[in-house]
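Fold this sequence, please.
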Amino acid sequence: MEPHFLAIFLVALSFPTFVHSLVRHYNFNVVLKNETKLCSTKTFVSVNGKFPGPTLYAREDDTVIVRVTNHVTHNVTIHWHGIKQLRTCWSDGPAYVTQCPIQTGQSFVYNFTLTGQRGTLLWHAHITWLRATMHGAIVILPKRGIPYPFPKPDKEKIIILGEWWKSDVEAVVNQATNSGMPPNISDAHTINGHPGPAPGCISQGYTLHVESGKTYLLRIINAALNDELFFKIADHKLTVVEADASYLKPFEIDTIFLSPGQTTNVLLTANKHIGKYLIATTPFMDAPIGFDNLSSIATLRYKGTPPYTKTLLTYIPPLNATPITKTFIDSLRSINSNTYPTKVSSTIDHSLLFAITVGLNPCDTCLTGNKLVSAINNLTFLMPTISLLQAHYSKIKGVFTDDFPANPPMIFDYTGTDQPGNLHTDSGTRVYRLNFNSSVQIVLQGTAMIAPENHPFHLHGFNFFVVGQGLGNFDPKKDTLRFNLVDPVERNTLSVPNDGWVAIRFRADNPGVWFLHCHLEVHTTWGLKMAFIVDNGRGPNESILPPPKDLPKC
């Protein structure tokens, strides 16, 4: 936290207990920064000259106001990943979905209230691939006087996992777009901005300092663009207590798993011998495709550790350690207490089946005459030239249609070997319309078309409950009977397993335009995305607020 923000925050914490919520102001200046990693120096886009960017601190029900000023030549937007944005869809941030980009020399004020939310989330750029270096943590503390539903830690630490390219990431994605092929993979993974030791390169690395006998709350964030990651600390168990800013029934494990955009809070007790212990983040990939398979390491160091002490190493999960991911995901259960009840819809107004595919479409300028695309229900989503929200709010015709398919246009053996011979997809800007307060179930079905793999999906504007998941094709008669409607994990980002499916439920009680997309940036670029329109309900409290006066123009 920057000094003046820290001072404001500490003053706020000293307010009397009758102050229920505050307004917190932040300034985000988008500027260029030079930095050397892996023996290579490059210039990249940052917020306030920091990588990772500044942490946003607040309490539940506070109002947050962030002025973002663009000092670079790139257009920018910021998304507050996991913030529900109740009635403040204009501040959600995805370019051409809820706003036009902030152009060079312009500013935009994001204004939102953290209604009923507490925990760890993240913010990041939401245009092209700028979130590779434009990201940071959001820490939402409970209301004053409300304790955590787990033992109070002695200290808290933020750990942000990321990816690093030696090249300009915008050049990487432009090259891939022009060629029609997959983009170059990253050169390293990072822990709090550090890639760890590299042969022949000077790298300080990240050190987590601890004291014997103390317990630490680690707020762990996967801010990587394209890689799902494992995280573990040598010879230490981690007690998982929260995922995506939702409390969990605590469980102990030695390896956690995070998809891009996911956050996990764990308790770490420093109960081992004084010394140094390896911290490792390694990628997970159970499909035969190219990815960054390099591990990034850091060090946990006990206070009082003598100089030149050897670091205790640890077992690193295999790249295709599907059993480890399954063990972790299956252990996630919402706390479902009187204070934090789990309210899952038992009746469904909209039952949707979204088949996830990779395809090939013609491309005259591409190397092979074709380009890789991705689709939901065979529809590759095309971004408009003005924001969907503006078109919806102002009733501008010709920008989108509200006929997004609720089911695949053709039923086939989604995860089998007999896949459709036609790999072409349809393209369009089509959305799915929901009535206010309707209950929604989506089954996200993976397929084996061209490149089957895990797909982390993120839904803007809502949390959802993961009521079921499995391998193979979803069977509505059998699989529905096994749904967990008692204590399913509540998330904003989930991982659809390779050749499998996941079922989620949410209530559409937030009017606006809300993006649903794969959080692997390469797949979002290929068109693996769609949007929901949630119509206004009755009266002003169930309606979108008017657009802010400084809303950027396209």
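DSSP finds five helices and 33 strands in the chain. The helical segments are 3-13, 169-179, 322-330, 388-393, 521-526.
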